[in-house]
């Protein structure tokens, strides 16, 4: 574990693998979703760091990173990612994220596409928030500030992870309970105002992988299929017996999907 001072805040991160850092394999950066932290990528770090440099930051407001109350715009999250990678001396990288993290991947590609060599979009969707969705995000933010994380975590647990995946469910529940309410609320308010990325996806020029759990109720398979259809160079992987967190529910299957995508990224470079 390490921390870096960037953009006036502390960012916690893990930076593993790629011994010697001149492997010819793409550096992989993974962004967590809401309301989680970088520990959600533990199975991917363990599986991939033998051949790749794998960097997993805590977004501001989560984990070991600074909590900034109010609203955190997606452009601010993206600027933190860019600044951290500058700090680490990483110019180009394959970039992946799950749920809100996947939307932040799209924001990063919008702002600095020249640095991104591949996209992983897991259990996410590109559309802007609807008026009803904005109201819900802001109401949830108000609730987190008033009540803390427990009631929310208890309610969404069964959608985040399929109930039959008991070990992953317990792990995800612990992460949600540990999330700082002020940071989670700030992210929700920023997420409510995110742009529409659907037009951007049609212009993506790097190898992409779209992954979704078969039983995901938040971002169903149809959303993943729609992204796959629009992206010029993409593969689609639907992971059986998983809901919104297939990287933790079915890590072996998730990791197996990442390897050929990373091969495609390396070949494209």
UniProtKB/TrEMBL annotation:
Q: Which GO terms describe its molecular function?
A: hydrolase activity
Mind listing the UniProt keywords for this protein, alphabetically?
Answer: Hydrolase
Q: Which residues cross the membrane?
A: none
Pfam families in UniProt: Abhydrolase_1 (PF00561)
Asked if the keyword Hydrolase belongs to this entry, the reply reads yes
Region Disordered: list its residue ranges: 1-20
> Where in this chain does the record put each AB hydrolase-1 domain?
26-251
Superkingdom is: Bacteria
Q: What is the protein name stated in its UniProt record? A: Hydrolase
């Amino acid at each position: 574990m390490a921390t870096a001072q960037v953009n006036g805040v502390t960012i916690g991160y893990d930076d593993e693998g790629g011994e010697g850092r001149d492997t010819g394999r793409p550096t992989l950066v993974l962004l967590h979703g809401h309301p989680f932290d970088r520990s959600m990528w533990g199975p991917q770090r363990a599986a991939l760091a033998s051949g790749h440099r794998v960097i997993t930051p805590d977004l501001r407001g989560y984990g070991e990173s600074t909590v900034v109350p109010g609203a955190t715009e997606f452009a601010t999250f993206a600027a933190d990612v860019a600044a951290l990678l500058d700090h680490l001396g990483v110019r180009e990288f394959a970039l992946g994220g799950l749920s809100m993290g996947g939307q932040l991947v799209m924001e990063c590609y919008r702002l600095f596409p020249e640095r991104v060599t591949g996209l992983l979009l897991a259990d996410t969707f590109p559309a802007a928030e609807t008026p009803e969705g904005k109201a819900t995000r802001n109401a949830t933010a108000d609730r987190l500030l008033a009540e803390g994380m427990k009631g929310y975590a208890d309610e969404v647990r069964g959608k985040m992870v399929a109930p039959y995946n008991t070990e992953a469910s317990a792990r995800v529940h612990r992460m949600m309970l540990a999330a700082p309410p002020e940071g989670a609320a700030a992210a929700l308010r920023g997420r409510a105002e995110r742009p529409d990325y659907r037009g951007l996806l049609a212009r993506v020029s790097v190898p992409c992988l779209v992954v979704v759990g078969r039983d995901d109720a938040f971002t169903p398979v149809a959303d993943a299929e729609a992204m796959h259809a629009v992206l010029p160079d993409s593969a689609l992987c639907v992971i059986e017996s998983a809901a919104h967190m297939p990287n933790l529910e079915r890590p072996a299957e998730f990791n197996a999907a990442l390897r050929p995508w990373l091969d495609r990224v390396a070949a494209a470079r």
